[in-house]
Amino acid sequence: MRIPHMGAHQGASVCLNRRNRRDQHVIGVNYAGQYTHGSGKVDQKGVKMSVAIGYVPGAFGQGGQDPNFLRQLVQVGDAYGYDSLWLSDRIVGQQFSLEPIVALSMVAAYSDRLKFGTSVLALPIRNPVVLAKQIAPLDYLSRGRCFPAAGLGQDDPTEYEACGVPKSDRGQRTDEAIVLMRRLWQEDRVTHEGAFFTCHDVSITPKPFLQPSPPVWIGGRTAAAAKRVGRVGDGWLVSSVTPDEVRHGCEIVFATAAQHQRAIEDDHIGVLLSYYISPDGQKAVAKAASFVTRQRPDVPFTAFSAVGTTAHIAERIQQYVDAGAAKFVVRPLCSGEEAMAQLEIMGQEILGAVYVSRETLRGYTKPRETI
Questions:
Q1: pLDDT of 357 above 50
Q2: Which CATH class is domain 53-361?
Q3: Which of 95, 144, 283, 312 has its CA 20 to 30 A from that of 262?
Q4: Where are the domains of the chain?
């Protein structure tokens, strides 16, 4: 896609297309005002690869004052051509948080185009039979738009205690739950006797629209998480990582998959990328810093986020693509009041979204510009 106008933030043109990993650019920035194009080439296996950008809400906890918040998020996604909308999973806590499976059913109803997913489900604290039953009809009714990404959950033991699950065995629980859910989605009569879950001669209907099962992406930036993707997952959705860490993680994912006689698609590597767009890079960093959800002691947050001008954001995304990522979930590093404006800027200046008239937005009101 091509952006006809970059606005006031940077006199550059940006386009997003998948390229050959070694020598072609997905995101071209041309300061002469001419458009650059990605190659759309195939990889060495002859499989066409694609870059896609989805989004999550901004500051965690936003939306609690307005029940129309989720509908507005969907409208922004449809207006600017985002690929997908993703919601986090928090069972307990003081901050406003929508239960993702319930909320994503609303997303499916609000839009007949957007894909949607979880970023990510705390799988160890959920019953895999119940969860498989929830996901299957959601995928069936949305005609294959549901992407259940899963992880181990938060480090805080409070949520595990509240759900009656020990934190100590969360890794093994997650592996077994994924295997059981896949069987329930694919088989008619399932008997399973595992270390944590047991069922005999059970079936769930309807089956998911996507067969043999919805793709299960797995979160986490540790080597253990990357190995889990290779063993039982379909893709890797990782956050708070540098491009170099993505490159190293990809090596682990694909090597582990090969060891287990499995295949992970080359473009099933995703990055949850926090961002803030502003013509003043230094001010952008200062403003975004207070909205970083997970600081790291070893590297500054600017090493694993995209903060600054449009050109800088485009360059950072390209760095991740060069490292092996193909799917992105962007999160504005700002207050809830400003998040919609940031998502609009990303849509206008990075995605190159096709114009959608205000009449088609069904009551959506553009938020006040704050930068």
A1: no
A2: alpha beta
A3: 144
A4: 53-361
